[in-house]
Amino acid sequence: MFSSRTFLLTLLPSIGLAACGGGDGGGGTGPNPTGSARVVAAVGGTGVAGADFTLSRSGQSNRSGTSGADGSFTFSNLATGTWTLAIAPPAGYDLAPGQAGSVSVTVVESQTTVTNVALAAQTGTITASVLADGSPRAGVTVRLFDDGQATVRASGTTGADGTFAFAGLPAGAYDLEAVPPAGLELSPGEQMRRDVALAPGGSPQITFQMRAELGGTVVEVSATASLTFTPADITISPGTTVRWTNTSSLFHTVTPNGHSEWSDADLSGNGSTFVHTFDTPGTYEYFCTPHQAQNMTGVIRVQ
């Protein structure tokens, strides 16, 4: 008859043999082999932070990460084999030409696979638009500078539509300049050089208002947003030129009232002008057709 002590001694070796049989050397499965994958996002060798990476593989949970200040992120403890890497560039960047948004990554046991991702900084376009007396003006020289600099970065000439575009510019601060050609001057309050902030992928358009440069005595009258001609009543000498300028986004006219000293003139948009030289003494009343009911009238007294 066995004692309880003899029975315990008999069981313990059996338990010990079973435990040894579960190791790799005993023909068991053991831990799955793993490796690492390091992804580096860069522009021309400079790391870019904020790129999002996702690794996916059938039968495995997706793994995600975001590049740090050096442009890299490392996925650890990945099952060996082929994974699919999806790439999402950060704001202000696109995938570089030839760079696919989804690539294969092969993970090797106990090694780190490095995958380089090429990005390109988004560029933008700054367009200069020149209006002379309210109409597009061709042939005006426009120049682009880096912010606060005196050296011209690029220059061009406006086309038939009055514009010139500086394309492929990196985001940043610039100065844009429009040089009035002979016979034109900047409209009142207009600056020849303007500050421009360009965001990644942005396309700001800067409009410069110019007007004909007149000789002799010139009196200025504004057609305003408050539905007035300012000044509304002026007295001038024969040979004086009057220039009406629309200083609003409204449509105005300069319409003769009871005389034919000039033909009905449209001031179709902000910056548009009408010019007339008065040689004959007399009193010349006029009004704005759309706003006559609001008492938008004026008078020119030549004496």
* Poorly predicted sequence stretches spanning 5 or more consecutive residues: 1-30
Q: Could you estimate the helical fraction of the residues in percent?
A: under 10%
Mean pLDDT: 90
The number of helical runs is: 1
> How much beta, percentage-wise?
over 45%
Q: Based on helices, strands and strand pairing, what is the structural class?
A: mainly beta
Rg from alpha-carbon coordinates: 38 Å
Give a quick account of the main beta sheet: strands, pairing sense, barrel closure.
Answer: 5 strands, mixed
- In whole angstroms, how far apart are the ends? 147 Å
Q: What is the H/E order?
A: HEEEEEEEEEEEEEEEEEEEEEEEEEEE
Q: What is the 3D shape?
A: rod-shaped
Extended strand count: 27
Describe the fold and architecture.
Strands 1, 2, 5, 7 and 9 form a five-stranded mixed β-sheet that branches. The chain is mainly beta and 303 residues long. It is built from one helix and 27 strands. A hairpin with a 5-residue loop joins strand 19 and strand 20.
Any descriptors?
single chain, 303 residues, mainly beta, 5-stranded mixed β-sheet, 52% strand
Ordered list of secondary-structure elements with their pairings:
Elements: H1 4-21, E1 34-43, E2 46-47, E3 52-56, E4 63-66, E5 72-79, E6 81-88, E7 93-95, E8 102-107, E9 112-121, E10 123-132, E11 135-136, E12 141-146, E13 152-157, E14 163-170, E15 172-179, E16 184-186, E17 193-198, E18 205-212, E19 218-223, E20 229-230, E21 233-236, E22 240-246, E23 252-256, E24 265-267, E25 273-278, E26 282-287, E27 297-302
Parallel strand pairs: 1-9, 10-18, 19-22, 21-27
Antiparallel strand pairs: 1-2, 1-5, 3-4, 3-6, 6-8, 7-9, 10-11, 10-14, 12-13, 12-15, 15-17, 16-18, 19-20, 22-25, 23-24, 23-26, 26-27
